[in-house]
Amino acid sequence: MVYFIGAGPGDPELITLKGMKVIQSCDVIIYAGSLVNKEILKYAKPEAEIYNSALMDLDEIIEVMVKSHKEGKDVARIHTGDPAIYGAIHEQIKRLEEKNIDYEVIPGVSSFLAAAAVLKKELTIPEITQTVIITRIGGRTKVPPEQDLKDLSRHRATMAIFLSVQDIDNVVLELKEGYEETTPVAVVYKATWEDQMIVTGTLNDISQKVKSKGIDKTAMILVGDFLKDIKSYSKLYDKEFSHSFRKKEDL
After folding, report:
1. Which of 76, 173, 179, 199 is the most exposed, having the fewest neighbouring CB atoms within 10 Å of its CB?
2. Which residues constitute the domain of residue 128?
């Protein structure tokens, strides 16, 4: 069995309990060494075989999985954040299916949620935004034209932008097509890691602030009015609001 496991954003205690238990039981560990906190490896058995996928191509990764499968060994394939978001598990899954090797995906805490947590913000504020767009700017990995930042920005929803801080000038340029220039922005470098940094500003000044900190990778860009000091509140716990579990007359 191959287990694709989300390691979470950085803090090794943010892996799920299930993910940790599976790592403890596996004979072979393949982890994304460029992004996964190596502290996660402390959960592995002392005798486990450890591979760093940052130094491997797809064929080499699959070769380890196939060899381990033939030897009756379970494999923990550890990805940063959640494997379903920019995890590149699609091509690995296809290859395992071709070889009739069973697999399971164990979700993790994505970095955009970790970034919201360290900012102590809710991404979905009633009457302000009820939509979260998860995206990235195009580069060597192409983005469909209809999903360009400038088009998505016209929704003025909460936006979580991955893998783009190295191109912050163009990110800001495209976002200004739809958002007001005073729209708040937060850039969170290595959310939940010990060397985490938070930079806040607006579309007018965030680029300069980010570059002054030397941040050019491993950062989440969050954009939207949810970052403002909002006075709009949910009705969920409003004493004048009733729903199927709590009737107004019961209060």
Report:
1. 173
2. 111-227
